Each structure stands twice: as structure tokens, then as C-alpha cells.
Amino acid sequence: MPSLAELTRQLVDHLAPVLNDYQKVYAAEYVQKELSSDTKGSTRREWVDVLTKLNAAERAARVRVQENLADGLNKCVGGLVGMRENVTGWEDDLPIQISNLPQHIQLLLNLSSPPSATTHQFAYEYLHRQPSSGMSEDQKLYREIMDAEPFSGDHWGKGYDEEVTRGWTDSESSSDDGRATDSSVDDEEIVTPSIERLALTRREEARRQVEERVREGERRLESAQVALDTLERAYWRTGGEVLPPMEQDLFGWKELLTRCNAASLSASMGDGPEIKTISAQQLQREILFALAGRPGVVFAFDDDVCNLIPGHPQTRHMSNVASSGVLGNLAHRATQLNSIRRFVKTQTAPASSPSARRARPKTQEAFAEACRAYVESVDSWISNIETAFACGSAVDDSIPSTPLSLLAELDRTFGDRLDGIVSLIPLSDDPIVLLNSIHSMYTSFADSAYRQHSLDLFLRTVRPVWTVLGRWIVDGMPVPRSLSADEVTGQIDLDAEEGTIDPEIWIKRDRDVSWTDEDFWETGYVVGEGGWPEWMGDTRDMVLEAGKARGLLRGMMGGDQDNERWDELRSIIERDAEQRGKDSQAGDLVNLGRLIEDHIAPICQITIFQLRRVLEEDCGLEQHLEAVEGVMYLKGHWSMAHWLDTLHTRMRKGYRWNDMQSLTSGLRDAIEETDGQWLNPAAVRMSPGRDSSRGAITEPRDILRALGALRVTYNVPYPLSILFTSTSLDLRAAVFGFLVQLDYAKRRLAENAGVRGGRMDHTLDLLAHRLWWFIETLWTWITERVISVQTDLFRAKLAKTSSLKDMIGLELEHTRLIRDFAFLHDHTADLHEHVMATLAIAVELPQRVSGDTAHRASRHVDESEDEAEVLGEKESVRGAVDTVPSDLDVSSLNDDLKARVQAIREAVERLAFEGGMSDEDVERRSVWAMLSFALDDWRR
């Protein structure tokens, strides 16, 4: 009786005949294991478990729209359920018990494989199979004939079962004897082999197979022994064959060429050690080994440098001098390949620690992966040549057959690429230098194949940098968590956590610049020491601005914004090639700078426009600009005029007015009293300056100086404080102080007219008139021709500007221009001194008028009074006159005023003609020219 293992092997042979021997053994062991486990009861399955799996298979088939398979499984499961319920047997009385039915089905499930086309065909046939209708008429007739035993009886001779001798039956000998007769073929007996004969035949066949296997084993052993002997005598063990000496008595070139080789001829010319040689095929094998990084008998590797082994075997067809040059060049190429392999192995090896892994540049790793792909292509080329030699393929033009042709083919196919990659390896630790170098290689060579290789190398290497650039443009710069703060103070928590930018990109964070610094937008994130990549084209300002704008938007509006999709650079180049159509070919030079700029320009511009819209619509740019100009340029007429009136009244009454509290509260009260909806009073603050006295200031000259030191500040909320920097606000505040000085001088001159009350001295009145004309001319020019016109131009330019960087530059340019026109620049220091001296004369003129009036009153004393009273009155008037300083003489002041105004006119006229021919210079000269033209009336 066969064993379970034998039955299992037979089962596997019938069910899976396509398996090889190893797979059949493995499958048989697996089936036997399952059967043994089932016998022991460890994996026995119940009908419910099996039925659940069958139903699951049916549902899975229906989900996959495999209706035939699902219906077939349903029909089969229904038949099994019916058999279990009726406890019926099987056809042909198969020895299967109903109680063991789950185990048999589980075995079939374990042996099953995923449904194939054959499975679906069988399911279809199973569903459409016609049920058996019993035996046909012919089958019934044949059954009746066979039941009657038609072949029994003496007339049939001996039957198959009546054989008494080994071998064939008697009918065989009868047939042999009858061959000589003329009986027909129909009379020949039908003979069949006996059981013993069949068994003998099988045994003979098995014996022959065993003998054949033995002979095959002996032949293999003999071949292995021959191969082993050959390996023992291989050239890499013996060092090659000893070069036989050159034959003697060789004369003429013909004999030298036919009866001698190059190595023997070269050796005969000198006395040296014994020379060993190898064949050309063996030398080719050594060269291929060296190029693959494996040492041999000709080449050796020392510190990854390939060198020729001293005294290496030579080839018969080449002399030592001839072969040294070729082998030296091949050793150089092998050294290059080995250095690339070592670089790839170093960069792709697992890091010793997480910190070391983070310190490794991703661009360098990407470059190493690109080098790996290139080395694999070289290794594939080497292996194809080696395979051709090993398999004995026919030599054609594609397979170099000599060392010189191999070197030429290697240089032609990989030479320039090898030189380029090896030169890039020392630069790989700096991503910017590495990518710039690859881009230079791409644009420098005219060969299309090399150019395509350089472009592919660049695209593989640039992927990490391109990804980080995408995060900068799409996500923006890292921002503190507490970016948005109080709307009035605009403070930012400097201790708040701020993200870091990937060091892979060339944009760096200057940690010396805080978020609250006025030049943060310009210097907070700058280009690193490596500079801007040349392959990025003229996109520096646009990329920096877009990243900063996106980060600021994300900080103000949250991170749930619809960001643009960032495409791979390779896909961008492929789309560009598709758009160019048939005119584009592989290897055509692609202007990466232009292509990148065309791709990222819309993304950057949309981001910049979004920030501009947020600043204007959500942050109130227009309203805050109105407030700043209304306070610092005195354009908030009602509120600022009321404040100036109040301030002048306090000065006239001798109250203390120059402390911070009085100034700030007075300005805020004036704004609130005039219903100034254009300004938040809490955002305004005023300080007296560093040179102001703590006490009350009463002298006009001191008041004039103190007013020039006044500084008003307006706390602009973030992020508008990026635009209105402290520098621009200080420039506006300086102009504010100058305007307040002019207003004070005008008010003092008005007081002078009130004090005189219609009684005038011609010289004094002429002086007052000239002062009034000069100050009024200066006031009209600075307010209407400078501030009003320049602010309108500034607003028009600001409305057309979308970049926050350009807006900041425009704001500083505007405030500095007005500062220059207010004589507050260093190059107009002399002009400012003359203006201040003129204003000093104006503010001190009322004191002179008071002294002159007292002197005139002494002349109208009643002559009827006694002498004592008159003398007393004179002494009193003389005391009042003596309080006027001697340097306040009207005539000298008039001359001084003329000199001052003349100096101012000359300086302004000089400024009207200075400068270049640019639009800015022409505009600046035209403004000075208007003041010069207005001052020409002084002569008249």
C-alpha cells in the first residue's frame, strides 16, 4: 500500500505538472503537513467555517463582476448542502464520509490559486452542462452484447486469462507460423502483452535510466575534474605563459612578421627578467575586470586608485611600450569609475547617528543617486561586452575586440561624462556650486547626447532644492506663532517659536534682524553667501518677495489657504517640449532661467497681489496713511489748527507747554473736540525732544528752537509698521517740527500787527512786511507746492505698486524728498541756518515793537505836570527801552534780513540747476525752481 508521502507526490504531479522538481517537493511537503495536522485534529474545520469561506468567495466574485464563477460556486455549494442534509453517497462509491466533508473542502481551498481564464471557462461549462439522461441506445446495445459474453467458447481459442507461459500468448506463435502462408490479414490473431512482460519492460527501462544517470554523473564528474585542472593552470594563478625566445636566424621583415611576435621581438632587444604573456582575450578580460572595479594580474587598486602591477604579463601581439600607453589610459578610466563608486557608497550608506543624517545635504544625496544610475549604465555596458566574450558571440562593430578599440569606445560613449562627474564630486557638498557647475556643463557643450546627459543629471540633482523652493513660494517664510498682536501697539512676541528654513536652499535667515526691526522685510531673509543660482535667471527679487508675502499672509490669515500646486521641474521641461512640438528634439538647449521664470512668475505675482489687497482692504492702508499725513504734515486742518491755537495760547500766557504729557494730551483733546474720525487719538503721542528745558519756555528764540525739536509719533499697527518704518516716521516728524516753526513765526508776526494798532514806523513796518512776505511765500511753497503735490504723486505711485518691498522703498523715497525740501538734509544745512535766522527775527519782532511803542509814549507827557513827575516818567520809559537788547536795532535787522534772503535765493537757484537728467532729478529741480521764481519778487 503506498504511503501518504507517495500519494501526496502523485497528487501534486497530477494537479500541478508545470512545477519544477524543487517546487513539487515543496508543495508535496506542504500538503502532507496539512494532512498530518488535520489527522491530529489541530486544524480541523467545521462545516460552518468552510461554508463561510465559500460564501465569501462567491461574494467577492460578484463584486468583481465574475458572474459565471459566482453562480458556479453557488450551484456547487447548494449541491454540497443537499448531500449533507440527505446524507447521500457519492458516485462510484468514493470513500468520502459526510462527516469529513469540511476537511476535504478545506484541503482544496488550501491548494487553490486565484481564478484564471481556465477557471472562468470551467465555471461556464459547469453551469451549462446538460444533466445525464442515461445510456444512449447504442450504449444499451453494447451492454447487452457484452453481457452475453460473445468472445467465450472454444472457437475463440485461448483467451487472455488462459496464458500459461511467460511472454506472448499462443496466438503470437500462431501468427508467426502463419506469416509464411497466404492467409489474409483478417485471419491474423490479435495478441496482447502479458502482465509479466509489461513488468519486465518497465524494470528494464528503469535499469537503463539508472545506468544513464550513472554515466551522466560520471561524465559531469570528469568534466568538473577537467575544469578544475584548467583552473589550476589558469593564467591568474600562474601569471601567464613563459614567453618563448625568438627564433634565431630570422632575416627580413617577412620572416619577422610571420615567425615572431611583438613581445618576443621587444624582449630580444634587451636583457631582462623572464617575461610572461597572456592572450588578447585574457587581456580583454583583465581590462573589463579593472573597469568593473575588480583587481587582476594586470591592474591593482590602492586607495581606490587603479595602477598597473609592475612586471604584469604582456600580450604577444603588443610590446611593453605599446601596451603601456593604452593600459595607462584604461587605468585612469578605472580610477574615475572607482572614485564614483566610492562616492556613491559613502553617500548612500546609513548614517551613524540622526544628527549626521540631518547634516548630510539632500542635494548631495540626490547627486549620488544620479551617479549611481550612471555607474550602473557603465556596468551594464561592461557586462554586455563580457557576456559577448564569455559566450563566444560573433564580434561586430558594437563590441570592441581589442584594448585600443575598447578604450576608444569607452572614451566615445562615456569619456566626457566621466570627466564631468569626477570633477563635480569635490563640489557636491555645496548645493549652489554643484548645481551651477552642472548647469554650466549643460550650456557649454554642443554635443546633443552629452547635453541630454547633463540635463538629466541636473534634473536628478536639483529635486531636493526644487522641492524646498516650492515650499518657500507656496508656503512662505517661517513666521512666529504670535504674529498678529495688538492693533495699536503692533508688538510681536520675540520669544515666540519661529520655524526654520531648510538649509538646502540659498535663502538664509539673518538672526541678527528681529521681526520688529524696520529693515526686516529687506534683510530678515537674504540670499546666502553662495549667491543666487545662475540657472534661476532674473527671479531673485520676485522669489524673495513672494516667499515673504506668502509667509506674512499665512501668519495673518491662518494656514488654510488654497496654495498653488508645485510641479516637478522635469514635467515643466517636458510640457515645454510638447508645446514646441516637432521643432523640439532630445538634446536641444533649454533656457532653464526663462522657463523657470515663466512658470513661477504667475504664482509669485498672485501672492504679491494678495498681500497688497490684504494691506489695503483688511489692514486699512489708506486710512492709516491719511492719519499719518494729517498729523505730521498738518493736513488734518481742523484738528491740527485747533491744537496749534491751544498751544500758542499756552505759550502766550506763560504756561508750561513743553512736557510730553501736556503735548500728547493737548493733541488728543484737540482731535476729540473737533470730532476727528480720521484718526485714533490713542495712537498719537508727542515728545518735546532732548534739548527742551523742563521748565516753561518764554523767550521767543528758545520757543522757536524747542518747536523744531518736537517729535510726534503714530503707532502704526502690524503689518503696516513694515511699510511705515520708524525711519520714515522720523523723517515725517522732522518735517512736522519745521512746519510748526513756520506757523509759530506767522503767529508772532500777526501779534506784531495787533500790537502796533495802526501806528507804524516806516522802517519797522517795512521790516515786518518783508518778514511776512518771506514766511508766507515759504509756507505756501512747502505746503502747496511740495507736500500737497508730492503726496498726491506718492499716492498715485503707491496705487500702482503691488510689491511690499517697492512700497517700502517708495515710502522712504517720498519722505526723504519732502525732508530735503524742508531744508533738513546735510547738503542744505547752510540754507536751513539762513531760514532759521530769518524766523528768529520774525519771532522777536513783537518785543521790538513793544519797546518802540513805549519810547513813543514818553514824548506825549503833559507839559503841565511838574518837573519831578516828568523826570519820574522818563526814568520809567528809559527802563522799559533799556530792556531791548542793543543788537535789535531795526536798521541792522533789516540789513541782516536782506542778506539772509539773498543767501537763500542764491542757494535755491543753485539747487534748481543741479542734478542729472533723470526724471527724478528733473522733478526735483522743477520744485526748487518754483521757490526760486517766487523769491524773485523780493527784488521788486
Task: List the keywords.
940 residues; mainly alpha; 5 domains; three-stranded mixed sheet; 36 helices; 9 strands
Please give a structural write-up.
- 64% of the residues lie in helices and 3% in strands.
- By secondary structure, it is mainly alpha-helical.
- It folds into five domains: 4-127, no CATH class; 193-230; 253-429, no CATH class; 463-618, no CATH class; 621-938, Gamma-tubulin complex, C-terminal domain (Four Helix Bundle (Hemerythrin (Met), subunit A), Up-down Bundle).
- Strand 3 and strand 4 (305-308) form a beta hairpin.
- Helix 14 (320-348) runs parallel beside helix 17.
- The longest helix is centred in the C-terminal third of the chain and has 39 residues, at 762-800.
- It starts with a helix and ends in a 5-residue tail after the last helix.
- 25% of the residues are buried.
- It is found in: Cytoplasm, Cytoskeleton, Microtubule organizing center.
- One of its GO terms (cellular component) is gamma-tubulin complex.
